[in-house]
Amino acid sequence: MTQSEFYAAKLQYETDSWDLATALKEGENVVVIDARSTEAYEHEHIPSAISFPHRTMDRESTSDLDRNTLYVTYCDGIGCNASTKAAANLTALGFSVKELLGGLDWWIRDGYSTEGSQGKTRIHPVCGC
Asked: Which domain, by its residues, includes 51?
């Protein structure tokens, strides 16, 4: 595999907060999945994200998900791998998935708003990826 092929392949499986925010704003067919615990989701999460803890993902629990949708999984960030576990679960079940680089931590660092009991409105995204 060449370097060019490596990086092109990597972009098929990962996204950043700028690209996700753009996709959501433009109404693309994407569903954001918070793969952490329900309690963590209720504390703070990306707007429009659904709570779907990775430990609960199986054929039965995903039966109502649209297989023509792109799912973007996330968790806390660099020190957490719930988004990776969720992406692995969903791809094994036949879904199209990308993982959000940096998770909720980088979403916040990049200046995007959050919802939940500790959610915060942020006015200006700072990432220009």
From this structure: 13-109
